[in-house]
Request: fold
Amino acid sequence: MSYGVDWDDDFEDRARTYCPLCQGAYMPEWSGQEAHFGHTGNCDARILPTRTLLRLYDSATAVREEVARRRSEGSTGPS
Amino acid sequence: MSQTPRDRWAIPPKIGYVNAAQNAHFVAAPLLAAAAIGIAGVMAADGDKFRWPGPAMLLMTVCAVLFVSCIQSSFNAATHLFNPADLDAWYGTSEKPPDTVLMQIQQRDFQIWKSSSRRAVRLYNWGVVTLGSGTAVALSPPGNASSAHAVCRWAACAFVLVATLRVAAATATEARRRQHGRRNAS
Ligand SMILES: [Zn+2]
Reply:
């Protein structure tokens, strides 16, 4: 966090950015924690890197397709 | 990575804390910072009438910086604190994001508020300590003071010093307790 007054945030943008499968909110980087989505334990989209989901979160279909594509390629595990 | 709660809103540990902090940080802190700068100015203009004008100016300057930092930190904290009623008021009749999402965001922002508020409280307390120390140094009588005058000034100096040491001890204990708690939690 900056030492001056902090003005660099957009609440509405943040509140509309969430995982379409489990409604895990997007959490920007803070206090040593990397930016991530707050997925539930059984969410399929957990395997997607944050950046990929940031590109696709608008569409549940696109997210499911990307998950299926990665599974078929055998790439799993969040990064 | 621990899961942010998504089924409840975060609530301050003390409900009155938010108001209390705002009064201390946005009303008292600016006044105290202004007082510190004022005293430093007097020292600069009339240094020969004081015993240790240099150290007093140094302490008052540090004090003013601490209070201003406290105001900034408290401002940053306040921007992250909101409750469901605020969201209802702001969204009005327009479509709100889902409550599960808003709860996660409110919980995360609440952590940021807490951490920034704690920093503001620490800065405020050290601001009080430097203000007290600077006042004590300014109160110490100059070498040419009459003995009656000197006795009164030393007494005032001691009185401020005792009060300041108490605040310093409480602040340091709190910091140690918090550090200890964090070590135990991790
Ligand atoms: Zn998810």
